[in-house]
Amino acid sequence: MNPAFPEQRTVLLTGAASPRGIGRATAHHLAAAGWHVGIIDLDAEQAAATAAEVAEQHGVQAAGAGADVADREAVRAAVDQLEQQLPQLVAVVAYAGVSSPVPYLEVDAAEWHRVQSINLTGTHWVVQRAAESFVASGVGRIVGVSSVSAQRGGGTYSKTPYSAAKAGVVGLIRSIARELGPYGVTANAVSPGPVDTDIMGGTLTEERKAAMAADGVLPRIGTPRDVAAAVAYLISEDAGFVTGQTLNVDGGLYMH
């Protein structure tokens, strides 16, 4: 039998300091449900400020640390720091990512490397470090963040390098699920469709929202809360028998 899900539990979120991002919304959503929160963001000051805001509003413990997720040693140091400040680490959600609207024939080496290193390699480094703690304790929840762009082959704001990286996240998570399952650790991905955040190229107009929604079967695009709620399920104790899956949160944009 696996160890019991601890009552005092911490979720680690990367890329959760952006003011209008899904990660920040998730931090608040999970804190409201009683999770303690660790935030890793490129901007250390913003990570700390977001953590302070979460702690104050929800009465939980929260802390922030700065790191470029593409830098293995920086990520490991950040997780070490947060683990010392917070209760037992039980879940990690790798939100940190960048968009890439560059047309395929114009993608140069720098753009390709930038997108892969943050969206895919960055997911790997933080998940690997968190997984060390999960395996040691015998309980853990891992969530990678893919995109409907990976499943449909683009067709959103971002193009090929982004789609390739986000498809890589799905393969990464499935393999991690297989390897770490025997240790009581689950690994799943969420795959958002269009969500009204700044990664879509700035605040969306009502016309642009309507055009994006037209591809799906629901009459709206997603909100950060939609994705946060899906993540809340995947990292919950109730999701202990769900692993290796990709949960689409896209209004029916991609059905499979």
From TrEMBL:
It comes from the Bacteria. Pfam families: adh_short_C2. InterPro entries: KR_dom (IPR057326), NAD(P)-bd_dom_sf (IPR036291), Sc_DH/Rdtase_CS (IPR020904), SDR_fam (IPR002347). The keyword Cell membrane does not apply. One of its GO terms (biological process) is fatty acid elongation. The keyword Iron-sulfur does not apply. Residues 9-193 form the Ketoreductase domain. Keywords: Oxidoreductase. One of its GO terms (molecular function) is oxidoreductase activity, acting on the CH-OH group of donors, NAD or NADP as acceptor. Belongs to the short-chain dehydrogenases/reductases (SDR) family. This is SDR family NAD(P)-dependent oxidoreductase.
